[in-house]
Amino acid sequence: MNNSKTIKKSNNTLVMNLLKGRTLIVLSILVVFFSIASPTFLSAGSLLLIAKHVALYGILGIGMTYVIINGGIDLSVGAIVGLSGMIAGGLINEGLRMFGYTIYFSVPLIVLITIICGALIGIVNGLVITKFNVAPFIATLGMMYIARGFALLRSNGATFSNIVGKEGLGNTGFEVFGRNVGGIPVGAIILAIIAVIAAIVLKKTPFGWHILSIGGNEKAARLSGVKVKKVKIMVYMISGICAAIVGIITASQLVAAHPASGESWEMNAIAATVLGGTSMAGGVGTIGGTIIGAFVIGVINDGLVMCGVSEFWQMVIKGLVIIFAVVIDQFQRNLQAKMALQSRNENK
């Protein structure tokens, strides 16, 4: 009887280890599959394109990871990407008109202004959620429409093209964010920097512990002295900043800003986050897992395009991936609870 229990416990442990490494396993399978299905998948040009897309999904995913670990959701990030690109593109091409004068800013200032706008949108999301007790899904859904509307209003639906600035105005150099350095996209370098900082903050600082504790048990966190509302607002602010950075990189890569940029990218961010092991129930998640999840989404998106799969089928497949990730997450949580109960019974 004891031998049977030992075997069962060993099997559960094996399954748990496989579940923890599921994203890396899926990524390996996808790489092998698309390498066989498309001869160009492993070419230098294709890998560079994948890296650029992974950088965008990864940065968005980092902000989303903080939000979901904290027990929330942010559906506005895709629209913030579009609005941020329009803010940056408009400042470069048209400047800022004030009191009959037009002011042109340097690229560093344009980047700072754009990031501040993203942060403010995130703060508004956080305030609506914490001060008025609006569900995160509803609050950020509303903000998604507001941000997308302002992006369209910024140019009456038109595109800001050729956003390279002019030497005489001192606003050149914006395209640097879309270039490669030593064969590596600048966006990927930015992702690496943000990922390292975000991982350290989440695992090594009191703020990170507060994020995790609120997602795990908000009531207990509040009773232990955590300023829940303040942390939630900051989490949405971080998500807004990440989305603004992605908007800047996207506009730089295209050398143009379009109000529809980032459309449905919130789904890519959520998918990358959940695939990376972040629990939709909150309290559990890692930045490293989200980065691997971003690679999975990037490989799926670009791999399907290279294989000539219809865009409509791509949407179906991404939807199935999200559902699969949530189901697996729930299965893992149930298995962990079961193993914990068995361990307690054995120790009695």
From TrEMBL:
Superkingdom as given in the UniProt entry: Bacteria
Keyword tags: Cell inner membrane, Cell membrane, Membrane, Transmembrane, Transmembrane helix, Transport
Record-linked InterPro entries: ABC_transp_permease
Assigned GO CC terms: plasma membrane
Stated name of the protein: Ribose/xylose/arabinose/galactoside ABC transporter permease
PANTHER family attached to this UniProt entry: ABC TRANSPORTER PERMEASE PROTEIN YPHD-RELATED, ABC TRANSPORTER PERMEASE PROTEIN YPHD-RELATED-RELATED
Subcellular location as annotated: Cell membrane
Transmembrane helix keyword on record: yes
Membrane topology category: Multi-pass membrane protein
Main location: membrane
Transmembrane segments: 24-42, 49-69, 75-92, 104-128, 134-153, 181-202, 233-257, 269-300, 312-331
Cross-referenced Pfam families: BPD_transp_2 (PF02653)
Species per Swiss-Prot/TrEMBL record: Ruminiclostridium cellobioparum subsp. termitidis CT1112
GO MF term set: transmembrane transporter activity
